[in-house]
């Protein structure tokens, strides 16, 4: 690797100008935010595998999971749990997959977790057929057939997930 490529992945800085997620944190790039606290943010993926596909990231730039300090890891874990609870409630389906990549298949070099809702349950309607994708990547069989996030649907979904998060936060904590 050349030195300019390595410098791009320097995880010693809090924010990186060329990091797509740092730009979202800084408010320089738009995102459909479903959860935010002082140290973390969760937003809808722009090429979702399924509706509700969400990314949870620390606001502090850290390249990979194994580089997280204990406090950031603990805070990120709490944000991840809160976000999965809200998505499960909003979609009325707690079947979620939580995934992270470290270097391998990590397209954005900033720690992030994907929360991917399960595929819809099998329909009993024999006439139900999926709508063919119009996304150029999907038509070329790239990008896992993912279509770009529709802004109107995203706003509606964000509101639903944020409402669910608020309801969960208002509920008294269960005794162990």
Automatic annotation (TrEMBL):
A motif (Histidine triad motif) lies at residues 110-114. GO terms for molecular function: catalytic activity. InterPro entries: Histidine_triad_HIT, HIT-like, HIT-like_sf. One of its GO terms (biological process) is nucleotide metabolic process. PROSITE patterns: HIT_2. It holds the Pfam family HIT. This is HIT domain-containing protein. It comes from Moesziomyces aphidis. The lineage of its organism: Eukaryota, Fungi, Dikarya, Basidiomycota, Ustilaginomycotina.
